[in-house]
Amino acid sequence: MEIKVTIIAVEGPKIMRLASEIPKFTETLPAFGSGADKLSAIKISEKISFANVWIFNFAWLVPFHIFLISMALAISFLYKLYSPFTLLFTTLPLIIAQYTYLLRVKERRALLNSILQIVKIVEAKDPYTAGHSVRVAEYSEKIARKLKLNEYDAELLVNLANLHDLGKIQVDLSVLNKSGRLNKSDWEEVKKHPAVGYNIVKEITFLQSEASAILHHHERIDGKGYPDGIKGDELSLFAKILTVADSYDAMTTDRPYRRA
User: Where does the HD-GYP domain start and stop, copy by copy (predicted)?
Assistant: First the structure.
């Protein structure tokens, strides 16, 4: 089932109308931890630019492959010029390079898997909003595609969206699961979660550059949001996208104290 909506977002002094078809939540989880080949196949099937996919997934490997080609040529030359014993000394750099590459791939997969596990932990504490972070990530990606963000930024945004409510791990369970409307004291407790989440996520190296989007995902264009009350151009594009996606999901899903 799909819902067609028109999202209005403010970028500087301009008001942009972004028409987007945002799918309702399905049982499909993000493909975190999958190999680059599988992710690329999925993205190409979604009609994302092949060049965009290649740059994000494989461009970082170019120096590695240039090094391998250079070493292969050097080994061939030395083998012919000297003797087979040369191989004992020249293959060592190749082995080290291959090992380094495998470590890099393993580290990236581990980081992405860790993100998914963290999301599961947060949502286990607040089962009523189970799937919220995944849906916000899906909506954020849809918006990113409509805005034609590059593949790196789109992927970064999705990872941040999955972690945007991480700070709720420090919110009291009685508040998260309260069946009635929140009182002033409850709201003060809830308002802490963007800062808590930001302080955790800013320590994750590959998310540091846009971690402030998590801190500001409850801010408003008119400055009446929280925790800092900033507005307009002070908000990053990522923060604005997260705010729209988060608000949309909040309005279209049931809560303990109201229906969607």
Answer: 107-260
